[in-house]
Amino acid sequence: MKKKMKGVIFHGIGDISLEDLDVPVIQHASDAIVKITLTTICGSDLHLIHGQTVVDPESPIGHECVGVIEEVGKDVTTFKPGDRVVVPTFTYCGNCFYCKKGSPSQCEKGGILGFGSIRGGLGGAQTEYVRIPFADMSLVKTPDSLTDEDVLFVGDILSTAYFALENVPIHPGDTVAIVGPGPVGLCVQELAPVFGAGKIIMIGTREFRLEMARKRGAIAINPKEEDAPARVQELTGEYGADVVVECVGTPEAFQISFDSVRKGGAVSLMGMWGEPVSVPLNDMVMNNITIFTGLVNCHRIQEIVDLIECGRISANHLLTHRMKLDDILEGYRIFENKEDNVLKIAITP
Ligand SMILES: [Zn+2]
Ligand SMILES: [Zn+2]
What we know:
CATH class of the largest domain: Alpha Beta
Cofactor: Zn(2+)
Strand order of the largest sheet: 13-12-11-14-15-16
Shape: globular
Keywords: Metal-binding, Oxidoreductase, Zinc
Number of helices: 12
CATH superfamily of the largest domain: Medium-chain alcohol dehydrogenases, catalytic domain
CATH topology of the largest domain: Quinone Oxidoreductase, Chain A, domain 1
Number of strands: 18
Structural class: alpha/beta
Family: Belongs to the zinc-containing alcohol dehydrogenase family.
Distance between the termini: 22 Å
Largest sheet: 6 strands, parallel
CATH architecture of the largest domain: Alpha-Beta Complex
Radius of gyration: 20 Å
Bound molecules: zinc ion
Helix content: 25-40%
Strand content: 25-35%
Protein name: Alcohol dehydrogenase catalytic domain-containing protein
GO molecular function, one term: oxidoreductase activity
């Protein structure tokens, strides 16, 4: 009889449940089976549940976790059972057309955890065990000096923040404005100084999140209380921010981003867009604005782990709640409604 585990299944729009699932087994020589020791819920899970990201019904979900190697395929050379590992949201082969072109998130052989058959048909992360293809390429060891909580956000939201900053021109002393002080926006704030940011401005409407940003050194602006782009101009000698990172995915946030960037600056769009947005392309051309967007390439995990290990960045302040996997549906309810000043929930299988 197959071994069973608990895991979250997406049945259809607005419908998820915790089910008994088969424990995954090695399918290819480059696979590893990871026993998950800590997992969490991401804003992308909500987009998926609301139908803004297309995932086939009856798919396991969740894509942000850390764990311990349970078993490896015969070609895996970097890891052995018992090794603690950081799991990336996107797994990649390193060898296909897209990987060789430097776009591993579009890998033809890997996939995204918990995103159904259109993205590789992999298992989810909100469960007890997960099969990771191309383990040598995809996984990174967790240093002994770091806890699971220290590295829980490396494979997804910290990778996204790194990706947002790595792909726009940014120079020492630049002003970086972030629209959306949610978990991704706060990760961008954490990494921006590593990329050379001087002044960091956080724009958002939830006071608890703005307060978190202030505590970590940002100047906070609430667009409900003042004209955010005008305040950004005022803070930058009437020019605008050198770089704006958008982490919301609404037309309003998009507009604030474009109105806050200086001529010749860059806007990094990391929000997930539930609806089409009209883009002022001619204004961008006339003002030399660079736009960057895309699905995160999870190939900077080692660098991010190193930054945490040497104390340059930390994301532990995002952890506001802790609970057991058995209670994850309650966790989803809290996370969805942003109850109790929730930012991120550490969930233990
Ligand atoms: Zn995510
Ligand atoms: Zn590939």
